[in-house]
Amino acid sequence: MKVLVIGGDGYCGWATALYLSNKGHDVGILDNLSRRDWDSQLGVNTLTPIAPIQKRIERWKDLTGKNIDLFVGDITDYSFLSQALRQFEPGAIVHFGEQRSAPYSMIDREHAVFTQVNNVVGTLNILYAMKEDFPECHLVKLGTMGEYGTPNIDIEEGYITIEHNGRTDTLPYPKQPGSFYHLSKVHDSHNIHFACKIWGLRATDLNQGVVYGVLTDETGMDELLINRLDYDGVFGTALNRFCIQAAIGHPLTVYGKGGQTRAFLDIRDTIRCIEIAIENPAYAGKFRVFNQFTELFSVGDLALMVKKAGNSLGLNVEIDHLENPRVELEEHYFNAKNTNLLDLGLQPHKLSDSLLDSLMNFATKYKGRVDKEQILPKVSWRRK
Length: 384
What we know:
CATH topology: Rossmann fold
Order of helices and strands: EHEHHEHEHHEEEHEEHEEHEEHEHH
Number of domains: 1
CATH class: Alpha Beta
Number of strands: 14
Largest sheet: 7 strands, parallel
Helix content: 25-40%
CATH architecture: 3-Layer(aba) Sandwich
Mean pLDDT: 97
Strand content: 15-25%
CATH superfamily: NAD(P)-binding Rossmann-like Domain
Structural class: alpha/beta
């Protein structure tokens, strides 16, 4: 299949592009390279050294003989997007091309506006380009479990059947997003759902949990192919931050009580889920939702797991609790369903089995690149 990976220079997109190429798909990457610019603006760097996208693709071809087409431009530019799609002629579009950080969207008004315009307009442009030229193409869009929030009932996969005043209907699951970024993803979901209904498009929304890990079979082939490991207070996840803090002897910084529970999955499971989705496409007019995660952990759980892993490496790991810069429940019910991808063949990796190889070993290997000024939170959700 011809698969266009939008946002293919980013963390999930790069691993996905290489994996699909290695599996025999004809892959193209479309990216405006803005993820690198955001690091420059914030004065941060990924822990792992990332080569320019052109060198990455060239090295991949040298190692495998497989070519990946590259289109550099912005999907908010409709003429560029339309031209790139007509040139590549995809059978499936994997859409990672969005600003994906909740803290980034909460820095100030400008970052909130940028996040929503970039994400919502970019996705709308993809939908219109599909309608005009590729109505049979399958859109696989990366959503987020953060769209749901933390409701006091079980989280279903996209839809919920309810009874009200004696009548029953199946409706989109209510959304309670926790940042302007998560709100943009909700808007995306609604727009895609609407486009499928009125234009007969086909789409799969992968509501993904927090992804961890650096290593895949493909990114481990050569250091020029290595993936990102973000640890800063804006783009770094709690798990990444804990691993880097353990490696440099800094106490693990748990926000608040640490009871915040979220969904997680290994990067190797992310790329497998994408493969499952494109090889089992939604039918025309269908907006399909899969909850893409394998395990649930609280922030406190993660800290204890990292402490145990660090101690096994001879590190002296301590845990501190900080005032929570976010507005969120720190103790809550959280039970989400995730059976659709498992039923289609996903065989999950467990964090307990991969924490050392996929994170801690990279954290210790590259700890000399850590900027200690970047590991504490700098963005607050609260009114100042």
